């Protein structure tokens, strides 16, 4: 059985942003800030470490942009296992929230 | 006209946040860091901007160019790197933006990964230094000299310093006793530098002497002071223990002596076959002479090392 560990805030937001389509580091940082209403900020060191780790784990992969203006930018894309990790995390979070209302 | 200044400084790795604070304070005063090295910082005067600087430790990056470019795309300007893998970045400071925008590491997990990289390398180095310290200690137990003692102090100080660093860098959130750390680091630095300089100076000024005297037939050397054969002399620049290895094989008994400049005999060996290994001599500062006498003639081989 695969061990399920809660994702850190940064990991969660990176995966969530990528679930909306491939993006580069800076794009993920801005989207995270917007989605979390400025509560979560991902620094460059944290982003670099997180994306390297997630690539090693096979959750995300690098793709190259088709947009001619963005040619040099490396984009990250969710893999199937990355999608699975995010789905698992979301259902875990939902379960935790619904626990509040029970009893 | 551009104005520059250079500051020399030593920061221990686990005080990197203190180093950032110092650089940021300089930036507020108009001095912008343009080159950060392990032992010196170079600043350029430009009072029109204010930067926030951050340090990152990346000792084994697969693609340095890509790493710097990624940071650049996210608003961090690369300043410089040290030989051992510390990178300096900066971003123009805007007081309106939240403070977190000026941190490279925004969660404890990734910060710990960064400091953990340092702790990992430091652990490997510590093991090497521990082995060296052990070797020096064993050497000292069997042959105590001041030069070996200085080397031991040097390795010991490195080890304590690294142990402190590893302890902090393994869990960077624990370190909040900055003042104690500063004092301890400072004291250890002094011991480290003192031990290092002492070891180098003592080792380089330590007298070494060896001589091989071989002869198939040697004339008789009578037992009168003016006919002694002087083999060698040696200058001792500081008082320390020395260890003599001596080997004599001769057809007839011969005397080997070491005399100080005041005429005092500090060592005497006699015989036709004689061997000495690691005989301890405490020599004071001065000149010492090595002589042979009282030999009836014949084959003579003498070799010694000090």
Largest sheet of chain B: 6 strands, antiparallel
Distance between the termini of chain A: 31 Å
Rg of chain B, alpha carbons: 30 Å
Distance between the termini of chain B: 61 Å
- SSE order of chain B: EHEEEHEEHHHEEEEEE
What's the total number of strands of chain A? 2
> What is the residue-averaged pLDDT of chain B?
89
| Major sheet description of chain A | 2 strands, antiparallel
Can you tell me the residue ranges of chain B where pLDDT is under 50 for at least 5 consecutive residues? none
Helix content of chain B: 25-40%
Strand content of chain A: 5-15%
Give the overall shape of chain A, derived from the CA principal axes.
Answer: globular
- How many helix segments of chain A? 4
Outline of chain B: elongated
Written account of the structure:
The complex is a heterodimer of chains A (103) and B (306). Helix content of chain A is 55%, strand content 10%. Chain A is built from 4 helices and 2 strands. A two-stranded antiparallel ribbon of chain A has the order 1-2. The mean pLDDT of chain A is 88. In chain A, helix 1 packs across helix 2 (25-35). By secondary structure, chain A is mainly α. Chain B is of the alpha+beta class and 306 residues long. Helices cover 36% and strands 36% of the residues of chain B. Chain B has 5 helices and 12 strands. In chain B, the strands form 3 sheets. In chain B, strands 7, 8, 9, 10, 11 and 12 form a 6-stranded antiparallel beta sheet that branches. A 3-stranded antiparallel beta sheet of chain B has the order 1-3-2. A 3-stranded antiparallel beta sheet of chain B has the order 4-6-5. In chain B, strand 5 and strand 6 (86-92) form a beta hairpin. In chain B, helix 3 (108-142) runs antiparallel to helix 4 (146-170) and helix 4 (146-170) packs antiparallel against helix 5. The longest helix of chain B has 35 residues, at 108-142. Chain B is elongated and about 100 Å long. Chain B starts with a strand and ends with a strand. The mean pLDDT of chain B is 89. The chains are: A mainly alpha (103), B alpha+beta (306).
């Amino acid at each position: 059985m695969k061990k399920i560990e809660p994702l850190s805030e940064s990991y969660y937001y990176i995966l969530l942003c990528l679930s909306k389509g491939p993006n580069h580091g800076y794009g993920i940082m801005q989207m995270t800030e917007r989605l979390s209403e400025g509560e979560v900020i991902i620094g460059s060191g944290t982003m670099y470490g997180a994306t390297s780790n997630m690539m090693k784990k096979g959750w995300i992969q690098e793709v190259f942009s088709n947009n001619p203006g963005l040619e040099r930018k490396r984009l990250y894309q969710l893999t199937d296992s990355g999608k699975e990790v995010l789905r698992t995390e979301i259902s875990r979070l939902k379960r935790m929230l619904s626990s509040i209302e029970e009893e | 006209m551009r104005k520059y200044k250079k500051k020399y400084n030593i920061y221990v790795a686990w005080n990197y946040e203190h180093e950032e604070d110092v650089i940021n304070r300089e930036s507020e005063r108009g001095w912008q860091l343009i080159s950060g090295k392990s032992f010196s910082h170079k600043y350029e005067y430009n009072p029109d901007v204010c930067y926030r600087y951050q340090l990152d430790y990346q000792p084994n990056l697969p693609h340095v160019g890509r790493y710097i470019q990624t940071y650049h795309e996210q608003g961090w300007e690369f300043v410089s790197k040290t030989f051992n893998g510390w990178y300096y970045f900066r971003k123009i400071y805007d007081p309106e933006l939240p403070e977190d925008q000026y941190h490279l590491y925004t969660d404890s997990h990734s910060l710990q990964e960064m400091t953990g990289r340092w702790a990992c390398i430091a652990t490997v180095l510590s093991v090497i230094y521990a082995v060296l310290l052990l070797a020096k200690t064993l050497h000292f137990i069997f042959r105590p000299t001041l030069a070996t003692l200085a080397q031991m102090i040097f390795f010991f100080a490195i080890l304590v310093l690294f142990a402190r660093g590893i302890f902090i860098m393994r869990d960077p959130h624990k370190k909040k006793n900055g003042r104690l750390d500063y004092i301890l680091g400072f004291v250890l630095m002094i011991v480290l530098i003192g031990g290092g300089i002492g070891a180098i100076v003592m080792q380089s000024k330590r007298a070494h002497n060896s001589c091989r005297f071989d002869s198939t037939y040697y004339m008789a050397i009578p037992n009168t002071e003016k006919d002694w054969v002087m083999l060698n002399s040696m200058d001792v620049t500081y008082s320390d223990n020395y260890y003599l290895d001596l080997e004599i094989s001769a057809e007839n008994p011969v005397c080997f002596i070491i005399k100080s400049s005041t005429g005092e005999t500090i060592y005497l060996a006699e015989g036709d076959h004689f061997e000495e290994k690691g005989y301890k001599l405490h020599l004071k500062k001065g000149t010492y002479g090595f002589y042979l006498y009282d030999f009836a003639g014949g084959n003579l081989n003498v070799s010694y090392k000090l």
